[in-house]
Amino acid sequence: MKAMVFSEKADLSSQMLTLFRNTFEMDLYTTSNENLLNFGAKNVFKLTGNNLYVDNISEKLAEMYKNNGYDIIIIGSSAMGREISSLLSEILHLEAITEVMKIEPKDGIIATERFFYGGKTVIREESEAKIFTVLPGLVDPQPVNSSSTENNISIDKDSAIKVVDQIEKPKSSVNLEKADIIVSAGRGIGKKEGLAVIQQLADVLHGEVGGSRPVCLDYHWLSEERQVGLSGKRVKPKVYVACGISGQVQHIAGMRGSRMVIAINKDKNAPIFNECDYGIVGDLYAVIPKLIEAMKK
To answer: Are residues 133 and 36 in the same domain?
Structure first.
């Protein structure tokens, strides 16, 4: 089965190629200038042009899909990728399934797996869909010895979208997806000043600070880039320490790939204790200083 793969992000492109190279024959389409020739694609097509945006990129991808005999389209789930998938679905009149974790051909149809009920469970579906968006962070990119054929495709048609002004969003230096250790704060810390002890624990562990949706989006105690959850970052560190986090399904969906989960919560019935490897029932302001002291020794 032949797949067209697209992402504007190099890391997401290499993840998808690693994930599906033993399942599909793949051609990668990307606007990234990074080297992606050693991840298993048959061809790598670099899309170039002076005014690239979702509309003219989608039109070119639709053209290539029609002319090259692809069976399915796999798109990395980024802001741009999700928009392009919806445009391709409309242009090509093809069904799309979003945010999948697994894609398997089965007797002429496609079986997929994705989170359901806000991440509480995983649903397996069989359908005749042809367009799929894939979650980031499912695998670590692994190069292969062979090399793809590299091609350039110039998109001459200008986008119909005109940017009249651009205001840069403040960027954080944190990259939670790459962190080996994350210490996350939930609404159970009670106050913004409580982040100081969370930061101290992260420092002694040489980790990064993350947070739940309330801490990042509702209270704005942490920046949006530090949110872990279904609507935030999906992380898979070696160690994830959940401090004052109850364990709602939306948050669990974002950190379920963690190798080891340690939970600190004063509520012994908190759902987070069903997801952790080690749980500590107690006031985090009493527990964390003792942990820091012990680790410094």
So the answer is: yes
Give a yes or no: residue 163 inside a domain.
no
Contacts of 152 (CB under 8 A, 6+ apart): 45, 46, 48
What pLDDT was estimated at residue 188? Answer: 95
Per the structure, the complete domain to which residue 274 belongs is given by: 176-296
Q: For residue 118, give the 3-state DSSP assignment.
A: helix
Q: Hey, which residues does 162 pair with through a beta bridge?
A: none
Same domain, 138 and 182: no
> Collapsing DSSP states into helix, strand and coil, what is residue 26?
strand
3-state secondary structure of 18: helix
d(CA 27, CA 270): 46
The C-alpha atoms of residue 169 and residue 10 are separated, in whole angstroms, by 21
Whether residues 223 and 122 fall in one domain: no
CATH label of the domain that carries residue 258: 3.40.50.1220
Beta-sheet strand order (sheet of 181-185): 208-211, 181-185, 239-243, 260-265, 278-281
User: 3-state DSSP call for residue 42?
Assistant: coil
**Helical H segments across the chain, by residue range:** 10-20, 54-67, 79-92, 195-205, 213, 249-255, 284-296
CATH at residue 65:
3.40.50.620
pLDDT tens column, 223-279: 989 999 877 888 999 999 999 999 987 798 889 889 999 999 999 999 999 999 999
**Any idea which residue has 């050693």 for tokens?**
38
Examine residue 123 and state whether it is found in any structural domain, yes or no: yes
Report whether pLDDT(138) > 90: no
CA distance 162 to 211: 36
Max CA separation in the chain (angstroms):
65
Q: How many residues does the chain have?
A: 297
